[in-house]
Design a protein that fits this description.
InterPro entries: DgcN-like, DgcN-like_C, DgcN-like_N, P-loop_NTPase. This is EBNA-1 nuclear protein. It comes from Desulfosarcina alkanivorans. About 40% of the residues lie in helices and about 20% in strands. It is α/β, with parallel strands linked by helices and about 375 residues long. It has two domains: about 130 residues, NAD(P)-binding Rossmann-like Domain (Rossmann fold), CATH 3.40.50.720; about 220 residues, Rossmann fold, CATH 3.40.50.300. The strands form three sheets. The chain has a seven-stranded parallel sheet, sandwiched between helices. It has a six-stranded parallel sheet with strand order 3-2-1-4-5-6, with helices on both faces. The chain has a two-stranded antiparallel sheet with strand order 12-13. The longest helix has 19 residues. The two termini are about 25 Å apart. About 45% of the residues are buried.
């Protein structure tokens, strides 16, 4: 018997579908933890969340505010999720008021910010008064529960693939999630290791928000997540979500991911139309070529495929860029949201023949079962 997910209303004022709204977008596209029943963004009120993300209607309405949502939904959602991921660490007074209002209506609070709501006196008091919970996704474990690097990654015999990128918020998590789903649908036991709050909210069983850790533990926590996923799930393959970019001067996440996961291969995510780095208008985007060289220079991993982010590109432009990149880099290239994951699966099967054999075996079993 399937366990029903908690229902959730996702707050994303003025950012849904934009870079800082990536948490909300991810939850609308896929969540194993929550059933999203609505999004709050007054700039898009009345529209369908699926359509606003460039896909088909998914029946998730966008509301102007919390009162609007509660007046139109069939019941009060279980959770209120803060679905923005801005550089700023703290929320505004208006956002505080909405969180308090959500608690007054009996909704648990799910927070992905570095500002921990569970340590806010006003929020603590309101949560206790209304018997609701506050969950800070980015809050790290206690010091005694953190891990340093041990070298146990060498015990992992399943292929480990890191999905890295050329910038922040360029689709690494989306590609990792979609590829994980595609592999599992083919009978491959694929496990995703999340490294940020959005992936954890979506339901990844392994991983940690690495940007909230003391730097000494980043590599060890990633290694531990990969090792635990291998020991417990006995997977055919492990996918590791990337953060930022190896070349990005502002962030260290990708370096920790490369060291901790020691991947057997890399899929590189890139937004071809982006000229400047996200949130840093004075920093030019790196090229695909320069990022590949950097990744392969500082790790033993090989870039095996390229995934595109189609922001600000037409369908024809995406198709043309795919052809150009495949000719230039001799790497399978796709946009998983518009072209699917077939090329990525094929690239992985080419590099790891055991995956190809597993897919064939599963297909044979399925065919015999249907024939019977």
């Amino acid at each position: 018997m399937a366990i029903a997910n908690e229902t959730a209303l996702v707050y994303c004022e003025n950012q849904f579908g934009l870079v800082d709204g990536k948490t909300a977008s991810g939850l609308v596209r896929h969540s194993e933890t929550y059933t999203v029943v609505g999004v709050i963004d007054s700039s898009l009120a009345g529209k369908d969340a699926g359509e606003e993300l460039g896909g088909e209607k998914n029946g998730i309405p966008i509301f102007s505010n919390l009162k609007d949502a509660l007046s139109k939904l069939s019941g009060v959602p279980d959770c209120y999720i803060y679905g923005k991921a801005p550089l700023e660490a703290s929320i505004s007074m208006d956002e505080r008021a909405l969180i308090l209002e959500a608690m007054e209506n009996g909704m648990d609070i799910i927070n992905g910010l570095h500002q921990f709501f569970s340590e806010d006196r006003e929020f603590i008091h309101m949560a206790a008064r209304n018997a609701v919970q506050i969950k800070d996704i980015r809050k790290p474990p206690q010091l005694k529960d953190l891990h340093v690097f041990t070298g146990k990654r060498s015990e992992v015999t399943a292929p480990v693939i890191a999905v890295l990128g050329t910038d922040c918020a360029c689709g690494k998590r989306t590609t990792a999630v979609e590829l994980n789903k595609a592999l599992n649908s083919l009978g491959i036991n694929s496990v995703l290791v999340a490294t940020g709050q959005s992936g954890l909210m979506q339901g990844a069983m392994y991983g940690i928000a690495i940007d909230a850790l003391v730097s000494q533990f980043v590599v060890g926590e990633i290694e531990n997540a990969v090792v635990q996923a291998f020991k417990i799930e006995k997977p055919d393959i492990i996918l590791v979500e990337g953060q930022s970019a190896v070349s990005h001067p502002a962030f260290m996440g990708s370096l920790g991911i490369l060291k901790g996961s020691n991947p057997d291969g890399v899929i590189l995510q890139h937004p071809p139309a982006r000229k400047k780095r996200c949130d840093f208008p004075n920093l030019k985007m790196p090229t695909v070529e320069s990022e590949i060289k950097l990744i392969e220079a500082i790790s033993q991993a090989e870039v095996m495929a390229i995934a595109l982010n189609h922001e600000d590109l037409s369908d024809k432009e995406v198709t043309d860029i795919i052809a150009i990149y495949e000719k230039k880099f001799h790497l399978a290239t796709t946009d998983v949201l518009s072209h699917g994951c077939q090329k990525l699966v094929h690239a992985l099967s080419h590099h790891f023949p055991e995956l190809r054999r597993t897919i064939k075996q599963k297909r044979c079993i399925k065919t015999h079962a249907m024939a019977a």
